[in-house]
Amino acid sequence: MTEKPILVGDFNLREIEELKVLARRRKALVLAHYYCPPAVQEVANFVGDSLGLSQTAAASPVEVIIFAGVHFMAETASILCPEKKVVLVNPEAGCPMADMITYKGLAARKMELPGAAVLTYVNSPAAVKTLSDMCCTSANVVPVLKSIPAKTVLMTPDQNLAAFAQKLVPEKKIISWDGFCPTHHRLSQRILNGLKVKYPEALVAAHPECRPEVLATADFIGSTSAIIKYTKGETTREFIILTEQGIGHCLRLDRPDAVFHFPEGMICPNMKKNTLADLRRALETLSPEVRVSAEIRRAALAPIEKMLRIT
Ligand code: SF4
């Protein structure tokens, strides 16, 4: 007779416990981004944003990192800790925004902008980072930008993060790349207005990857970690959250008394490729490993380390 799985909400608790045991047996640290499916977040030792995950990977004494996220995140972890084995849970999980910029494209643009510094969002390929003066995340973009001596800064690849930063750091002249995150960029002011009419009491928290016209009417703008902190610190019990729906898992754990509304379709299909089955396979086989060549690693590490010093 097959035992029935214990299901709580969408979770199969037995499977989650099994995977936790497997991770311990493999002496692996499981990291998951806030946008991953909730069940995968439940298995993880640490759930965070791209910066927090890489820093955790680097600080941990564990030799094997199992990364539930997208390719550039595992790549960044491997750059920061080359002595560790970094395994990406699903090798098909890429980032369309990161794919909107290439080494060749950036090299050509730099030729047209002599004197401009290049500030690259971590959501980018390692090769692109090698051409950048500094990297940033949505959590630290303002202090990082302010620390750059050049007045003119080419910000890549996210045009919306660049527009957000320009508002907060007007003393810089920002030239932006024309990339965007399809999940956040699809959100229009019309959709947000509809939600505001439906939930008039709710506070609006938005990620800076959203379009400027969407950010213009938000009550709070910040990275995923900042949004979590914001909702924890507010007494309001109703929020409209303008970022990927996976964050809802952490938000609800932290504020079980509150209601979180998300616009329809705020889902990153790549983050959702990190399934429990993939996680099990990654833990069993400790593959596929993500590794960056020594040459690219050396050059990409410098702008990442500069950012970490500022942060
Ligand atoms: S949410 Fe957007 S930026 Fe993040 S991984 Fe998905 S496509 Fe890339």
Task: Please describe the structure with a list of short key phrases separated by commas or semicolons.
single chain, alpha/beta, Rossmann fold, 3 domains, four-stranded parallel beta sheet, disordered N terminus, binds iron/sulfur cluster
Question: What does this molecule look like?
Answer:
With 311 residues, the chain is of the alpha/beta class. The protein folds into three domains: 7-94 and 272-285, Rossmann fold (3-Layer(aba) Sandwich), CATH 3.40.50.10800; 98-180, Rossmann fold; 183-267, Rossmann fold (3-Layer(aba) Sandwich). It has 15 helices and 14 strands. The chain has helices spanning 13-25, 38-43, 50-59, 71-80, 103-112, 126-129, 141-147, 159-168, 182-185, 189-198, 212-215, 224-233, 248-254, 276-285, 294-310; strands spanning 7-8, 11-12, 28-33, 46-48, 64-68, 85-88, 117-121, 134-136, 152-156, 173-176, 203-206, 220-221, 238-242, 259-261. The strands form four sheets. The protein has a four-stranded parallel sheet, sandwiched between helices. The protein has a four-stranded parallel sheet with strand order 8-7-9-10. Helix 3 runs parallel beside helix 4 (71-80). The N and C termini lie far apart (55 Å). Bound molecules: iron/sulfur cluster. The site of iron/sulfur cluster has 13 residues, from helix 9.
